[in-house]
Structures are given as structure tokens and as C-alpha cells.
Amino acid sequence: MKKLMILFLVLVIWSCEEKKVPKQLETGTYRAVLNVQDGEELPFIFDVESKDKLKLYNAEEIIEVNEIDYLNDSVYIHLPVFKDFIVAKISNEESLSGYYINPDRNRKVPFRAEGHENKRFYIKSQPTQNVSGVWETVFSKGIAEDEYIAKGIFKQTGDKVTGTFRTTTGDYRFLEGVMDGDEMRLSTFDGAHAFLFRAKVSDSTLEGIFYSGNHWKEPFVAKRNEAYELPNANDLTFLKDGYEKLEFSFPDENGTMISLNDERFNNKVVIVQIMGTWCPNCLDESKYYTKFYQANKGKDVEIVALAFEYAKTEDKAFNNIARLRDKLEIEYPILLAQFGDSDKSKAQEKLPMLNHILSYPTSIFIDKTGKVRKIHTGFNGPATGEKYVEFKDEFEDFISELLEE
């Protein structure tokens, strides 16, 4: 009888626990912090609009998040398109602590957030420098395999700084931050990448450190140069001697092998997009290509994407592709070119007619006869302002030329 009473009490307690209403996020503005290397903190701001909707902010960029789950005293914030998520304990309705997790790359970054906070960075002193303008930049200078060039483009109003770094492979998204005395601090968090830049600024030079999550950091230096331009993105990737055409055969989500010899591509202008579902610049490009494709269905133009995925299994890779396709409402085919690794040298082995794959994304333009006419490396996204507009104009003019031939 005693044992039955104990069992009864256990069941009652368990039943009460099951019926507890999980803690939920309170509406309002939160300041979030990711702990990166060297004791540095990467901040970003988000607004909770309801228990199942919030918005992330990076300068002019607004990212809507509407996949939020609760379990007991924890919240799971599934970031849009990408597989990354934040899991955090709700200490009270306006205090969170947990981790930002990238499951495909097995990365975990400590995370915390407090409500009623709307300042991205706190400053100690008024700015003594103005970083507005163009900066000729080198990352990892002198480190042979890691050195690369970039173009810093910034605008400063008071102590507020916005802008980005353009590289030969893409841009570092919408950066937002401050000038604190002679120190510039910028950050962005887009659901896939977490970037922090700190630099000492003089009238003509920058010297700083770039942090990517808690797994990577590198130095950078820059000098003012309003006339500085990066190499032409149309000259970096090309077909090897002896080749005029691109050839491949990769599966779609149904296991059907797709190639450029298929009837749907015959006598069409074709854009082949080399990309990955994990890549923010690819996401920006895919958004633009999706709108262009939907607006030009009646014309002889096709797009086909080749996805190079980090996901460890084919099923997971296709799940990532389906998530991207559904979120963006992509109507053109996305083929799985590689899974388990997105190493560019291995990717180039899948397309041996190219001199290299320098960047995700890369776009290959093919005319109606099947001849490769142009290869564009990287993508200048919305954060690059005028360069984004220039890319769209150049893209649409070139497609029109190919269609008229």
C-alpha cells in the first residue's frame, strides 16, 4: 500500500510538471552578445514582437524570424533559411543565456541577451576620427596563404558608423557600430555569420582585428584611397584553354540527374549559379535571381543552381536545399553537386573545365548555343549600395544582349 501511495504521488507530481506552461519571451527590444575570442563581445539588437516572432537588425537590414519554440524554461530560435539556431534559458522573461549553434560545422558560441537594451555598442568617449570614405584594405597581410584584399566603404554620422568590406568573393554584409574615441567597432549577425571588427583609426590608416564567431580571427590594415577599386569580378574565373562549354550532371531532390544537355536548356540563355545554402552572399544572390526568374518566365532564359554543402549526409544536404527553396520560393532547379565539404579545390574537381572556384557564389553565363560567355565571381549584395545597383543593371543588360542574339 505504501509503495502504491508513493507511485501515486510521483505520477501526480510528474503530471503537474507536464502541465507547466513554458516560459516565453516578453515583447520588446533586446541587446544580445556573442562571446568571441580574446574576451571580445559581439553585440546585436533584436525586437521580440510576439512570442513566436522577432526581428534582427544590422544597419538597414531587417531579418524576420518566425520559427521560435519553447520547452520548459528554454527558447529555441531557428534562424531563417540557414540551419543555425540559438538555444537559451529564460532566466526571467527578459534575460537569456545559452548558445548560438551551427550544427553542420559543429560550432557553438556562448550567447546572452537582456531586455530593455537598444544600444549595440557602448562608447567611453566622443569620436576623435571620422572613418567615412573608401579604404584600401588587406586582411592577413604577409601571411601568404591567407592574405587577401578588400575595399572598405563606410559612412559616419556622429559616433554611428555603417558600411561594409567588399572582397573579390563577396561582401561582409551590413556592418553597424560606433567610433569610440579613435577606435572603430562594427558587428553583424545574420543567422549564419557573426562578424566583429575592431580597429584603431587615424586620419589615413586603419589597423585592426576581424573576428568570425569564436573560431577565426585575423588582422587587417587599410589606408584611405577614394579611387581604389577591386579587380574586375568578370576576369577572375575562366574556362581553361581548349574549353568553350560547361559540362556537369548532378542530381535534383528526386534523384534525377540534370545536365545542360536536357531539353529545358536547349536554345536558352542559361545562368549556372555555384552556391551553398550556408552562404549569406549566395542567399542575397538567390533572392535577386528568384525575382528575376519569376519576372522573366516568358523569355528563353533559365537558371540552375549547383549546391556545394557542408551537411554530412545527402539527406541533410537536400533538406537544407529544400529549406532554402521553400523560404525564398525558388522555382529554378537546385542540384546537389557536393556534400560533406565545401572545399573550393574539391569543388573545382567537379567542374574541371574551370581554372578554379574562387568564390561562393560564382555565376556562369551561357548563350543559346551552349557557349560560356562570361563568369562572374562573387556577389555584391545590398550592403554594397551602388555596387549592388551596378551589378543588377549589368546583369540585366547582358542577359538582354544574349537573348537578342
Summarize the topology.
Elements: H1 2-18, E1 28-35, E2 41-50, E3 53-58, E4 61-65, E5 67-71, E6 74-78, E7 85-92, E8 95-102, E9 107-115, E10 133-139, E11 148-157, E12 160-167, E13 170-171, E14 175-180, E15 183-189, E16 194-201, E17 205-212, E18 216-224, E19 249-251, E20 257-259, E21 269-275, H2 280-295, E22 301-308, H3 314-328, E23 334-338, H4 344-350, E24 362-366, E25 372-377, H5 386-404
Parallel strand pairs: 21-22, 22-23
Antiparallel strand pairs: 1-2, 1-9, 2-3, 3-4, 5-6, 6-7, 7-8, 8-9, 10-11, 10-18, 11-12, 12-13, 12-14, 14-15, 15-16, 16-17, 17-18, 19-20, 21-24, 24-25
Describe the protein's architecture and organization:
The chain has 405 residues and is α+β, with helices and mostly antiparallel strands. The chain folds into three domains: 22-115, Quinohemoprotein amine dehydrogenase alpha subunit, domain 2 (Lipocalin), CATH 2.40.128.120; 133-224, Lipocalin; 249-404, 3-Layer(aba) Sandwich (Glutaredoxin). It has five helices and 25 strands. The chain has helices at 2-18, 280-295, 314-328, 344-350, 386-404, and strands at residues 28-35, 41-50, 53-58, 61-65, 67-71, 74-78, 85-92, 95-102, 107-115, 133-139, 148-157, 160-167, 170-171, 175-180, 183-189, 194-201, 205-212, 216-224, 249-251, 257-259, 269-275, 301-308, 334-338, 362-366, 372-377. The protein has a nine-stranded antiparallel β-sheet, with no helix packed on it. The protein has an eight-stranded antiparallel β-barrel with strand order 10-11-12-14-15-16-17-18. A hairpin with a 2-residue loop joins β12 (160-167) and β13. The longest helix has 19 residues, at 386-404. The chain is globular, with a radius of gyration of 24 Å. The protein starts with a helix and ends with a helix. The model is unreliable at 1-17 (pLDDT under 50).
